Amino acid sequence: MPEQLHPIGDALKKHTYRVALFHLGFRPFFLGAMVFAVASMLIWLLLYVPVGSSGLVALSPRDWHAHEMIYGYGMAVIAGFLLTAIRNWTGIQTAHGFALFVLFMLWAAARLIPFIPIENNLQLMAGLDLLFMLALLLATFMPIAKVKQWNQLGIILIVVLLLCGNLLFYLGVLQVLEQGVEWSLYVGLYVVLGLIFIIGRRVIPFFIEKGVDGPVAIKNWRWLDITNATLFALFAILDVFTGYAEVVAGLALLLFIINSIRLFGWYTPGLFGKSLLWVLYLAYIFIVAGFAMRFVGFIYDLPASAHMHLFTVGGIGLMTTGMMARVALGHTGRNVFEPPKILTAIFSLLMLSAVSRVFLPLLVAQHYLFWVVLSQLLWLAAFLLLLWTYLPILIKPRIDGQYG
Questions:
Q1: CA-CA to 110 of 20 to 30 Å: which in 1, 104, 317, 365?
Q2: 17-395, which class in CATH?
């Protein structure tokens, strides 16, 4: 039998703290992700226009922005989600208290180092960032190994692949591996999308079934799951490491078709009345649209930024905010079926950010800079509202007095 969730004493089960920031992984890492989403986009806005100095000293602006959206913001959300979910899956308390504080500070320090003018700045950033990911790997693997839930090792493989991808980035910027930066950014993006496929397949249909009013019949097909996983693995490997553009475009088209069928199987009209449901469904639509855009972009020679930002701003942006919003409510004892009404505005702002970044520059190209800046401002507005709404939820103890 697994040990108790709170092995350090029954007193922790009671509401004995005013601040619960380091009780469970989602709290500091979701808060850190929200703060970083605001700070990093504000810096990117200053770099992009530009209207001032960012203070960035370790990396080129482009490399920094791309890396930090995946391995900074993305990893924070993933860390918070996994540390919380694995506790539920295994019944074992994951990192908390001082151990969680140290893990979070490793992540935070790696985000700050590029702006501190010290010797061997980049090497220090690499060391802290990779140490954080190694520590996260250990913190997620140990509970799974303790209860021998080997069927969960696929999730651990995601952390391993992201660690390898991040290592490629630092080998690239330190000029050890010529293509390290490009490989890293694509590997990171596709591993995060792969995680969304894995987790999304588990939870999105479940949330829809439990969340809509009235009966609903969700359809899932085993053949589709296997086909999608195989095609996506081929797509990612060929796109990152080969120059077979025609094959990659063809695979993108197949992935668009396969995942459109999946969306059809999950669809029920009632989901669009629930903000915590439609945001996840819409995020998946953006990802599917990204595959379509990849195929169309190959045919009509469109810029890669079109499909990339469908994947990132639309897909990952909406999926991560939706999951953070739901997990934070559920794991602080709140009712996920009565979320804050402001979430509709927050998710809508992010959706408009994706539209402004992808579609408007294609339709009205002469105002490209305006559309990009508008997208950045919409992103900032969304995350400022999210941070304002969830700051007290993430810091204060559970409303039911439990530890977590």
A1: 317
A2: mainly alpha
